[in-house]
Every structure is written in C-alpha cells, then in structure tokens.
Design brief:
single chain, alpha/beta, 23% strand, 9 strands, Rossmann fold, 5-stranded mixed β-barrel
Length: 266
C-alpha cells in the first residue's frame, strides 16, 4: 500500500472522485480516504504547513503501515519556464525555516533525496501520460511564497524548481520511519504571478473555504478579483494534472515493483 499525503482537499478531489474511495476516521480535522483496491493510493489530507504535514504523516504510518509514502499537492513555480498544471518531481527536498529575512545564508544540509524506485515510477508516469514536467529541488518554507520576488529569489539563490509548505516535513518523517518516499507537486502559480494573500492557509485544515470567505476577501480587496479568477482556473488545471499523474504513477510503480517477482517465477 502507498499512502499519498496531501494538504488541501482541492488538490485531491479529482483523485478521490476518480476512484472508489471511502472515508476513514481520522484525528483532529484531518481527512483520510481509502480505496477498495490496491490500484490507487490511500489519501490522507492533513492541512497546510509543515507541522500539520508531519503529524498527518506520523498518523498515516501508524494507521496504515504503508510500504511507501508520497507527498503530493500544489506548489509555486520558482523558474520562469514552469506553468500552472506542470508536474514537478522532486530530485531533492529542502527546508528553509523562519522568515525570508533569515534565508540569506542557505543551509542545504537538511536536504533529502527520494527513493529511486518511486522516482523512476514518477518519471515513467509523466512520460507515459504526456504531462509537462520538471525535475529538481522543491523547497519547503514556513509561509506561502506569494510574491514574484520571493519565488524568483528561491529559484536563483537556492536553485529550487518549486516551493511549497509541506513536502520536506513529509519526507523527514518517512526517512525517520525507514519508509521509501517521493514528492510530486503540480504547479498552481507561475513564478511571476503575484498571488493574493488569501492563498496562504498555513496552519489551517484541509477542508475547502466557503464562498463567504472569498466574498468577504474580495469586498475588502477588490483589486485581487482578477487574480482570484485566474487562480481558480490554475487550480483546475493543477488538480487535473495530479489526477492524471496519480493513476499513471500507480500503474508504473506496480509494474516496476513486480518485475523481480516475475523474473523469479520465470
């Protein structure tokens, strides 16, 4: 069994709807869904931010005893060639704690590399499914990188391909538990897109915000309406890419991991 750890419901809704999933009781305001067959991963949504991601991963490992863990969700692009809906496969994940003012001296000693078999399955999945993808470092920060300047700096100074707020925490827990892992994310916002402040949900749970929250936000920030509309379209593209990827990944992973067994049988 593979457990896919995500943060927000909107990134996982396509995956859940595409399979025969049933809700599983989960602690706090986490969400968990288990498929009726092994062709899809168990999905656990812990909410936004590293602290929540770490707790959700620990719970998922204790609850499901998975053979491997995947961190998935949306990310921000830090290179100018990445577009919304592109898939980013992590070659490394790196943590940058604190605020941007503390990032001037970059310490990459906490960077982690994914499991080779899962990485191969991810590369196979994007190639088979025809998804545009990028392979590079995903950096995890404590606050959503919304401004073009921040994302550009991460791309140049850290040589990151994408930025999120959960991936390193998931990987770190998996490493400490001795479980293979990988990180795959779908680009939500381009590097030069100035995202509205409401996108930052660090510390909040996985459930969708109600329309009332967005109406109130737009009433106080009418200049952000075009950005919110663009973000909605980007979210649809990013979610569709994750749904397409996940199905292809599970097929590729199954084929790769069953090869030795087939060879022994022959």
């Amino acid at each position: 069994m593979i457990v896919a750890i995500g943060s927000l419901q909107r990134a996982a809704i396509g995956i859940i709807r595409s399979g025969d999933y049933s809700p599983v009781d989960a602690p706090e305001d986490f969400l968990a869904f288990q498929p009726d067959n092994d062709n899809l991963p168990t999905v656990v949504l812990g909410g936004s931010g590293s602290e929540r991601a770490a707790r959700a991963t620990k719970w998922a490992i204790e609850k499901f005893a998975p053979e491997a863990v995947m961190s998935f969700g949306f990310c921000g692009a830090t290179k100018d060639h990445a577009r919304s809906g592109d898939i980013v496969i992590a070659a490394r994940v790196m943590d940058l704690p604190g605020t941007p003012f503390e990032w001037s001296i970059v310490d990459d000693t906490n960077s982690l590399g994914p499991d080779r078999t899962m990485l191969l399955a991810a590369r196979t999945a994007v190639e088979v499914s025809g998804l545009d993808f990028h392979h590079g470092t995903i950096v995890t920060v404590s606050k959503v990188a919304t401004t073009p300047g921040t994302k550009r700096w991460l791309g140049e100074a850290v040589n990151a391909t994408a930025v999120d707020t959960e991936a390193h925490a998931v990987a770190d827990v998996a490493v400490k538990a001795g479980i293979p892992w990988t990180v795959v994310a779908s680009v939500l916002d381009d590097r030069d897109f100035d995202a509205p402040a409401i996108i930052d949900r660090v510390g909040s749970g996985p459930n969708e915000r109600g329309y009332a929250a967005y109406i109130k936000y737009v009433a106080n920030n009418p200049q952000d309406l075009p950005s919110l509309m663009r973000l909605g379209k980007s979210s649809t593209r990013a979610g569709a890419s994750l749904t397409k990827f996940m199905s292809a990944f599970m097929e590729a992973y199954s084929a790769i991991t069953s090869e030795p067994e087939t060879a022994e049988t022959d």
